[in-house]
């Protein structure tokens, strides 16, 4: 990296980002998030990968970092590697799940996932949604697409779209064709299932703690009601996932 690139990178991270965060805080926009997405190529739905590769779909707040590190260690070259080491991406519209293209993911109760996202956003001023989350859960739900039916957006490939019955049906069909879907609430047991399916030894269950839980808010019924009202399709597809799992689909 030459001197100009180093200066540009430092300016972008230290100065430009702070400017955008101040604008976001005053105007409830997401300019700094878009800056980061552009740098790391987050949320791309137009990637292609070889049929002998596996893609891990990492929706935020599903213990995805732990799974990603495990897969990188255990299946190595069989795991598709994202450009610029980015990690949050939906299903590719160019490579839909099925016999040719193999996807892996974990799903978490949507209410718990969103509340975890809310907690993390409040606790850390490094997160792009910190200023919005500090105004309250309802402000976050109104102004952040990642806490509104994000499973359906990621499973369908249609990110930043308002989820409707058509997108839900695409997400549902794609879910049925995933190579493996684990349940966050049954993390250790489902990791064992995944290890058997991919034929590797699970020495220990990894768990990466990104933020301390010391100052976490406690979820109450008002939180549940608010999150539910903005995530009806995700609640629906999560219920469908549990039915598939009960019938030994995964």
Molecular structure report:
- Helix 3 links the parallel strand 1 and strand 2 (102-107).
- This protein folds into two domains: 1-40, no CATH class; 41-246, Rossmann fold (3-Layer(aba) Sandwich).
- The N and C termini lie far apart (45 Å).
- 51% of the residues lie in helices and 6% in strands.
- The protein has helices at 3-27, 31-40, 64-74, 110-123, 130-133, 137-143, 150-156, 165-176, 187-198, 221-230, 232-246, and strands at residues 54-57, 102-107, 180-183.
- It has a three-stranded parallel β-sheet, sandwiched between helices.
- The protein contains eleven helices and three strands, in the order H-H-E-H-E-H-H-H-H-H-E-H-H-H.
- Helix 4 (110-123) crosses helix 10 (221-230).
- The chain is mainly alpha-helical.
- The longest helix has 25 residues, at 3-27.
Q: How would you summarize this macromolecular structure in one to three sentences?
A:
With 250 residues, this protein is mainly α. It has helices at 3-27, 31-40, 64-74, 110-123, 130-133, 137-143, 150-156, 165-176, 187-198, 221-230, 232-246; strands at 54-57, 102-107, 180-183.
Strand content: 5-15%
Give the overall shape, derived from the CA principal axes. globular
CATH class membership of the largest domain? Alpha Beta
Biggest sheet character: 3 strands, parallel
Stretches with pLDDT under 50, minimum 5 residues: none
The overall pLDDT, averaged over residues, is 88
